[in-house]
Amino acid sequence: MKVNYKLLDLYCALGEFICKSENINGVDIQSFLGIPYGKSERFGMPEMIEIYQRIPVNFGTGMRFPQNDVPPILNLFLKNPMMRKEILTNKDKTDENAFILNVWTSGTENKKPVLVFIHGGGFTYGSGTTPLYNGKYLAAKGVVVVTINYRLCEPGFIPVMVGGKLSVNRGFFDQQCALKWIRKNIGFFGGDAENITLMGQSAGGLSASMHMMSEESSKYFDKLIVCSAGVNECMTLEYAENIADSFLKQNRMSEPKELLMLSWKKLIRLKMPLELLSTPVIDGIFIKDDARHIMEKGGFSSKPVMLGTTGDELKMIDNKSWYKGLGIITEEENFKGKCLREYGSEGVRLAKELRKQYKSLTEIQFKMMELPFHVTALRELKLYSAKAPCYGYRMNFIPNAWNGLRGSYHCAELPFIFGTIQDMDYKVTSENLQQMEIMQNDWIAFMKNGIIPGHDFFGNNGKIMLYENTGANLIDFPQREIIESLQGTGIFSKIQKSFMRGRDNNFVA
């Protein structure tokens, strides 16, 4: 594969860019890595860059915000797909000012649909140049792909007092700033500024959902794709102020200015509950009410939506070394007692229902912990469908990592969608390549027109797309009856909180 690096003059107000040019499946693709979209002080709000002083404009390399690296050696023992090198960012340059985005395009002329992707990683790791999200293959199929960086860990999401004022939602404001830049400037890269699909997975999916509920953010995209996530509970400003105070005390600090004096390496190692990172603050600016209330009231703009989950969301952490921290019971005689203690009689009833489909005791418990993903998807399919065209999906295609050991794990749809399954460090099967074409055809159609030929909207008949074997068929939402019968009992919230505690115990982001 021939790859050339050169300066490309876009003949526009932005300036000159470092461009990598390569031929993908007979199509010339240009990638523009490391384009600064904004700037900010450590705990300040981002400001979008309007005029560029530097030549060239972009850095031409992968960049990431400070984050704690996962030792790759762990993957040899845990076989966690989230720790594979395709999803890690070790080759990126780490910088506290990595307010950058990346663009892949098949040419700067014409107007092509745009995909903006917000990466996941539990708000603690990741970047837009993670190999898994390389946009070259989608660009070769006529989509302009943009990936963005945003502040992670404490710098991005922990409430802090700055100059006597409470600073919150910084990571979400970073994303919003990037969206604004893209709406304004993507035309210079061959993108249609009036046809932008926002997509996020996991923490990125939560983020994308929040932008749908934000009056300001929703101005900057036209369609939404959410993978394995949804809107989350929000905290009030008063509660956020208490968090800011307790965060300092927990780390033996007395004043917020001490945070400014720390190196970024020390800053991101401070103690914090990971759950706080995924809890937006009702600040009256980014979000004006609890996001769940906004959704329930239909207080969001009417845009085409697609959302769904994978069939084995938590299979990547099905490892005996994590059982204790996750509270997994391995002895049958102790299982019923655990269900009663943690989830009440509803837990026993749910376990009984799951036994009809799953025989292994550990598998039943993992499927219980996965249910909040599916519960969220079902709830939001109903709410979006009441106002806008909405598709649902369940992803059961299995990448051939460790001969399919982890099933259709959390984020397994991404290598199929981006086409990067072709670059994975394992043998890709012919079936995987066929599955990739099926998903890409459907999802690109949605990005182009908001319509997927051959599939109905969820609101028409309550059916979703099942990606399984080598097909995409319409099915009833799996386990819908038991989910709906248990809604309102609080069991799914209990299960989710139990998992979050276990995740924190095992440092699983």
Order of strands across the biggest sheet? 1-2-3-8-10-9-13-14-15-16-17-18
Distance between the termini: 35 Å
Q: Which of globular, elongated, flat, extended, rod-shaped describes the shape?
A: globular
CATH fold name of the largest domain: Rossmann fold
Unreliable residue runs: none
- Give the full name of the CATH homologous superfamily of the largest domain: Alpha/Beta hydrolase fold, catalytic domain
Largest sheet: 12 strands, mixed
Q: Helicity level, as a percent range? A: 25-40%
Content of β-strand: 15-25%
List keywords for this structure.
single chain, 509 residues, alpha/beta, Rossmann fold, 2 domains, two-stranded antiparallel sheet, 18 helices, 18 strands, 35% helix, 19% strand
Question: What order do the helices and strands come in, and which of them pair?
Answer:
Blueprint: E1 3-9, E2 16-24, E3 27-36, E4 38-39, E5 47-48, E6 63-64, H1 73-78, E7 93-94, E8 100-105, E9 112-118, H2 136-139, E10 144-148, H3 153-157, E11 160-162, E12 165-167, H4 170-185, E13 191-201, H5 203-213, E14 223-227, H6 237-250, H7 257-261, H8 264-267, H9 291-296, E15 305-310, H10 320-326, H11 332-343, H12 345-355, H13 361-385, E16 390-395, H14 413-418, H15 430-449, H16 458-461, E17 463-468, E18 471-476, H17 480-486, H18 491-506
Parallel strand pairs: 6-7, 9-10, 9-13, 13-14, 14-15, 15-16, 16-17
Antiparallel strand pairs: 1-2, 2-3, 3-8, 4-5, 8-10, 11-12, 17-18
Helix pairs in contact: 10-18, 11-12, 12-13, 13-18
